[in-house]
Amino acid sequence: MKTDVLSMDNKKAGSIDLDEAIFGLEPRADILHRCVVYQLAKRQQGTHKAKERGEVKMTSKKWGRQKGSGGARHGNRAAPQFRGGGKAHGPRPRSHEIGLPKKVRRLALKHALSAKAAEGSLIVIDEAKLAEAKTKSLIEAFAKMNIENALIVDASVDENFGLATRNLASIDMLPVIGANVYDILRKDKLVLTKAAVEGLEARLK
Predict the structure, then answer these.
(1) Co-location of 75 and 145 in the same domain
(2) Record keywords: Ribosomal protein included (predicted)?
(3) By CB count within 10 A, which of 7, 31, 127, 193 is most buried?
(4) pLDDT digit string, tens, across residues 157-196
(5) DSSP 8-state assignment for residue 89
């Protein structure tokens, strides 16, 4: 699977062969969905907490007559039905993480890359480097390549390039080791450097 390599000036800078087993699969929505759910569940903090009946400081003295009120024979004011009382079965700190086999996660990443390639949203550039950390020059380069909302993946993030992209809310940059299904799918375009393509192929073979 051959594709063109572009320079930052949007000029052709050669071509590259993409591995069909990584970039040429028929995308499966079920595998991608499982991986996205896994990622989002794993990053939940799970620190939400509500005080329950035993944790609320309220009187436990019987506050009404046993008979004659026509109502229930209440004792503890910390009961959930009273204002200021504890929450019945409230949330407790816990992990929301779910399990997903490593093989499925690797396969999902392949399908995410293949999905971008299939829809024509994959762009390969020769390198992601800037002489100076100027966001303006990066915006001009992206305008030539019709890039507005994208994830850029490189073997290692160039300092100047990373500083320039940090000011752009719609542009994210990750090293190869950080490439993941959720970030790839949530952006309109995926921009890979030649080094990133080699890194991903080495990682997923």
Answers:
(1) no
(2) yes
(3) 193
(4) 889 999 999 989 999 999 999 999 999 999 999 999 999 9
(5) T
Scanning the structure block, which residue is given the tokens 């303006």?
136
pTM over 0.85: no
Same domain, 30 and 52: no
Residues 37 and 119 in one domain: yes
User: Using an 8 Å Cβ cutoff, are 54 and 92 in contact?
Assistant: no
- Nearest alpha-carbon partner for 185 in 72, 53, 7, 27: 27
What DSSP assignment string belongs to 59-88? --S--S-SSSSSS-----TTSTTSTT-PPT
* pLDDT above 70: percentage of residues in the chain: 100
Tokens at residue 8, please?
């930052």
Decide: helix, strand or coil at residue 122: strand
- The domain in which residue 84 lies consists of 46-95
Query: CA-based diameter of the chain, in Å?
Result: 92
Q: Do residue 50 and residue 122 come from a single domain?
A: no
Same-domain check for residues 177 and 194: yes
Enter the tokens of residue 142: 């992206």
